[in-house]
Design brief:
Blueprint (H helix, E strand, L loop, with lengths): L3 H11 L13 E5 L2 E4 L4 E4 L2 H4 L8 H13 L11 H13 L5 E6 L2 H16 L3 E5 L8 H6 L3 H10 L5 E4 L13 H18 L4 E6 L13 H14 L2 E4 L24 E4 L10 E6 H4 L15 H16 L2 H22 L3 E7 L2 E6 L10 H13 L2 E2 L1 E3 L3 E4 L7 H19 L6 H5 L4
Parallel strand pairs: 3-13, 5-6, 5-7, 7-8
Antiparallel strand pairs: 1-2, 2-3, 4-10, 9-10, 11-12, 12-15, 14-15
Helix pairs in contact: 3-11, 4-11, 8-9, 12-14, 13-14
Bound molecules: pyridoxal-5'-phosphate.
Length: 444
């Protein structure tokens, strides 16, 4: 077996930096459920579902069997020029669960593709060319998705490559950091005014509002209900399309098929990705049929999109989520995890806020509960200490721990993972993690 240190050293030599960052030096070679085994045989509880992908956990039999069965028959026959039965079946399944009625589906390979398709179609359908999007949002790394992403990295990239679309950024409704924490109504009013102002200033220019129903990489922020309802009403009244980016939130993660279903509004376009294929690359865009028809044949396609193996994997994921009752499970386990973390928050100076829906939970680390100053170095140290204690956890937005385990995780493993995580927080609070950890954990 190749020496682990050699793999890591070589990795940095031959793989471009634009592809990755460092959280923990895990060389994963096997997985079962929520457990990942590395090349040395060490096991970790993965509270990240590997970047929000492994909804069914590692080694899901349903996915492996569906993939092997399809691959044995045919690995590829392009649906651009022919017909793939699995692609049809998957589209039918997606339309059964979709909150958009009279919709159509198109396929891509990553969440980015699905968002780029939505952005192109929104411009084509409305004839308008600008967008409203949210500070700290993330929608992918293509030119169009970069334009509407609010995170710092997107602006850094755009400074070098230029912008694809004019985008007006408004703050994502974050009640914890608003003047009205704990008051959903006033918090919603506070943030919705900013959105209204942006729309009034740019009336006629806006093709779509691009919205994550829970802000993901920007810090796991759950928007207050009234805000999302008003957002939906405003978009409808103004004739602006609503792109509901569910790449991170769909397929049961929040306790519903789509997170937007918590708020009772209907978007026009829904990009999907990450968990859809259970680890096999596939993304989908569900959209209103009239919007989906607003570009010519072949205008948004990829040679490998609608691939039989990927579609078979996604079908297996959707069916398993349904058959195993994972929507309910996400809700129950989410409540269990949040109850525990909220009790822990009372005991830990570092934990400023615990928020989430289903098994999409954010734990915001702060230097001081009053000022809410982000505990950036501490978050990196917690990730490192958790790794040492056998738990995989990521931070987003610099100081928010993202708890996003497989929906199939059992109670015992979840509890054990969370206990080790809070032990890691204690160790950081008590100065038991040295600054050396900061060299290893970079994050983004
Ligand atoms: C909400 C959201 N949209 C889009 C993307 C991009 O997806 P991908 O990395 O599969 O292109 C991500 C990835 O983190 C995401 O969280």
């Amino acid at each position: 077996m190749r020496d682990p240190a050699d793999i890591i050293r070589k990795y940095h030599e031959v793989i471009a930096r634009i592809n990755r960052t460092d959280y923990a030096p895990i060389i994963a070679i096997e997985g079962r459920g929520a457990i990942v085994k590395d090349i040395t045989g060490r096991e970790y509880i993965d509270l990240s579902a590997s970047a929000a992908v492994m909804t069914l956990g590692y080694g899901a039999r349903e996915v492996a069997e569906a993939v092997c069965e399809a691959a044995r028959r045919i690995t590829h026959y392009t649906h651009m020029y022919g017909y793939v039965p699995e692609a049809l079946e998957l589209a039918e399944e997606l339309l059964t669960i979709s909150p958009i009625r009279n919709a159509k589906v198109s396929y891509g390979l990553t969440g980015n593709d699905a968002n780029e398709g939505a952005l192109l179609l929104a411009r084509a359908y409305t004839g308008a060319d600008a967008f409203i999007a949210f500070e700290n949002s993330f929608h992918g790394v293509g030119a169009a998705a970069t334009s509407v992403s609010g995170i710092g990295l997107a602006r850094e990239v755009e400074a070098r490559i230029g912008e694809w679309a004019r985008t007006y950024f408004v703050p994502y409704p974050n009640c914890y950091h608003s003047p009205y924490p704990g008051d959903e109504w006033r918090c919603s009013k506070y943030y919705i005014e900013e959105l209204r102002r942006a729309i009034e200033e740019h009336r006629g220019e806006i093709a779509a509002i691009v919205f994550e129903p829970i802000l993901g990489d920007g810090g796991i922020v759950v928007p207050p209900d009234p805000y999302v309802r008003w957002l939906g009403e405003i978009a409808r009244e103004e004739g602006i399309l609503l792109i509901d980016d569910e790449v991170q939130t769909a397929i049961g993660r929040t306790g519903k098929w789509f997170a937007i279903q918590h708020y009772g509004i209907t978007p026009d376009l829904i990009p999907l990705g990450k968990p859809l294929g259970g680890g096999i690359p596939i993304s989908a865009l569900i959209g209103r049929a009239d919007v989906m028809e607003s570009l010519p044949d072949m205008a948004y396609t990829f040679t490998l999109a609608g691939n039989p193996v990927s579609c078979a994997a996604a079908l297996a994921v959707i069916r398993a989520v349904r058959e195993k009752g994972l929507l309910k499970r996400a809700e129950e386990l989410g409540r269990r995890a949040m109850d525990y973390l909220r009790r822990e928050a009372e005991k830990h100076d570092l934990i400023g806020d615990v928020r989430g829906k289903g098994l999409m939970i954010g734990v915001e680390l702060v230097k001081d509960k009053e000022s809410k100053e982000p505990a950036l170095k501490e978050a990196r140290k917690v990730v490192w200490r958790a790794y040492e204690l056998g738990v995989i956890i990521l931070f987003v937005a610099g100081n928010v721990l993202r708890i996003h385990p497989p929906l199939t995780i059992d109670e015992e493993t979840l509890d054990e993972g969370l206990e080790r995580l809070t032990q890691a927080i204690t160790d950081v609070e008590e100065g038991r993690v040295s600054d050396e950890a900061l060299k290893a954990v970079k994050g983004w």
